[in-house]
Amino acid sequence: MNIVVLVKQVPDTWSERKLTDADHTLDRESADAVLDEINERAVEEALLLKEAHGGEVTVIAMGPGRATDAIRKALSMGADKAVHVSDDALHGSDVIATAKVLAKAIGTVEGFDLVIAGNEATDGRAGAIPAILAEILGLPQVTQLRKVTVEGTTVKGERETEEGVAHLEASLPAIVSVTEKINEPRYPSFKGIMAAKKKPVTTLTVADLGVDAGEVGLGGAWSGVIEASPKPPRSAGQRIDDEGVGGSKIAEYLVGQKLI
Amino acid sequence: MSTLDPASESSGITADLFATPERKELRATVRKFTEREVVPHLDDWERAGELPRDLHRAAAKVGLLGIGFAEEVGGSGGDLLDSVVMTEEIIQAGGSSGLVAGLFTHGIALPHIVDAGDPGLVDRFVRPTLAGDLIGALAITEPDGGSDVAALRTTAVRDGDDYVVNGTKTFITSGARADFVTTAVRTGGPGYGGVSLLVVDRGIEVVRRLEKMGWHCSDTAELSFVDTRVPAANLVGPENGGFALVMRQFQVERITMAVEAYATAQRCLDLTLAYVRTRETFGKPLVKRQLVSHKLVEMAQRTELARTYTREVAAMIADGRECVAQVCFAKNAAVAACDFVVDEAVQLHGGFGYLRDAEVERHYRDARILGIGGGTTEVMAELAARRLGYTS
């Protein structure tokens, strides 16, 4: 079974995340870049399926040059090869442009059976890529899964929501997205780290993929950021010393805030 | 907690060697392994006085036990610099030098067997140990001997296809758990020319577990052999050729202890920095006092100097350069930096620093052995003096 995993390099959630003043895109210099944690889980799930059913795991990433670090991490975990779409023209792409490019990149992987993505990235948080991809590629989508199994030519999954658990299935090839409940990702072994150096990474531009550069990037985006300002610092709270009437003072405050 | 990541903070020429993409990835794996498999249990292991075998298997699974050992003998590949990265990060992510001693005892128990190259011994001892299934120890020191390898008294007398071993070994790291002990024995006449290395894998009598000031999670034993019959096939290298084998490996053991020393210092600096930023006395955080911030600078400075020099010497060893005196300098300098930093770390933690709940308290006790084990500070100075010709 051949599996494609979509991965993204994102700013570390622990570091300060900012938009640039120039064009309100992500300021990649201000933060440490890491493989998005949800993608570690997506890679882990692909590796578990490969271990159960055989086949090959291909990682696809779209991002600037240094996204190779995120790709290397996925290869260190055990993925077999990678496709890295890197092109200055992609700077500022929105979800639709990203999905168009990823769809073409997935098309370069011969005979894939399953595409696994995280449900949403920790930076953009649109959570729309898997669905848009399914639309473009004309494939069934089974999203937001906490469990994935493959039986013959069918992928089955469990989607947990506040209303309950839905049991879903689709015929392969299909696109699935996974949530953070899916698994606990392995960490790369030392052998895996050393082996990753020798694994093939194909680097492609938008031209290589036959995508018109005008359709992608900031210029081709259907949505734009007009203004961004940092969250205002939290103001000091109101302090109430309890001298026997603390309870009613708090109640008064909450009434004033229209909370009770 | 704020951490000073040496890999990202140091941008020196030697430091770059330790920050290749692969070594950064290794550091991340080691940190995760330590946070997941070690930190939640370390206090229990300290109380139990030893590490569980499961930990050896877990470390083998991610390839950590095999770092620095060739894949042909069951290792993971990599070189001394990879081992340095691993040792640094285990300690800096919340492990300890004691944990390194107990989990990586094979780092001193196996290299002679690998060097000698007997495939039978490699299959019986090296592979299963690197897979986490066996635990090995190295036994050189004797109750009457100390670091004087040439004077050891444990005897191994050839009798048919066996050696018959008699003697006592002490301060043996992992000795209470060991399935086999790479043992320095006297097979010939007096002096260094009569010393051999023999793998004793049966009849290992633990006379007693030794209770220590620190390194509580690392079991240490006194072992005794009484007419213990060991197959002659367990001889490592040529008979009466053990002295050179032992001496060659001291280099790596000593540089590793230097790494443990500056990594412990770095960890204590990180812990202390976090503490003095939050701890308020007389209305302001401790770190706002010049006395405290200057003390932190001195801790950082000594740590950084020790790290930079030790890494340089490690790179020399990995490159096969002669650097016996430099290893002595590195060990003594890193130990001195560590002694200073752990002491100041406890001091800046105040009363809390004296409690078992404070991690710096454990490092303070653990650190004391680093200037003793693997050759004392004094032995290092003497060795350097001889090597440099400063004796006449």
UniProtKB/TrEMBL annotation, chain A:
One of its GO terms (molecular function) is electron transfer activity. Coiled coil: none annotated. The keyword Transport applies. Residues 23-213 form the Electron transfer flavoprotein alpha/beta-subunit N-terminal domain. InterPro entries: ETF_a/b_N, ETF_b, ETF_beta_N, Rossmann-like_a/b/a_fold. Its cofactor is FAD. Keywords: Electron transport, Transport. GO terms for cellular component: cytosol. It comes from the Bacteria. Pfam families: ETF. Belongs to the ETF beta-subunit/FixA family. The electron transfer flavoprotein serves as a specific electron acceptor for other dehydrogenases. It transfers the electrons to the main respiratory chain via ETF-ubiquinone oxidoreductase (ETF dehydrogenase). Heterodimer of an alpha and a beta subunit. This is Electron transfer flavoprotein subunit beta. It comes from Umezawaea tangerina.
Automatic annotation (TrEMBL), chain B:
The lineage of its organism: Bacteria, Bacillati, Actinomycetota, Actinomycetes, Pseudonocardiales. SUPFAM superfamilies: Acyl-CoA dehydrogenase C-terminal domain-like, Acyl-CoA dehydrogenase NM domain-like. One of its GO terms (molecular function) is flavin adenine dinucleotide binding. One of its GO terms (biological process) is fatty acid beta-oxidation using acyl-CoA dehydrogenase. Its cofactor is FAD. Belongs to the acyl-CoA dehydrogenase family. Residues 137-227 form the Acyl-CoA oxidase/dehydrogenase middle domain. Keywords: FAD, Flavoprotein, Oxidoreductase. Residues 20-133 form the Acyl-CoA dehydrogenase/oxidase N-terminal domain. The keyword Oxidoreductase applies. One of its GO terms (cellular component) is cytoplasm. Residues 240-388 form the Acyl-CoA dehydrogenase/oxidase C-terminal domain. Pfam families: Acyl-CoA_dh_1 (PF00441), Acyl-CoA_dh_M (PF02770), Acyl-CoA_dh_N (PF02771). This is Acyl-CoA dehydrogenase.
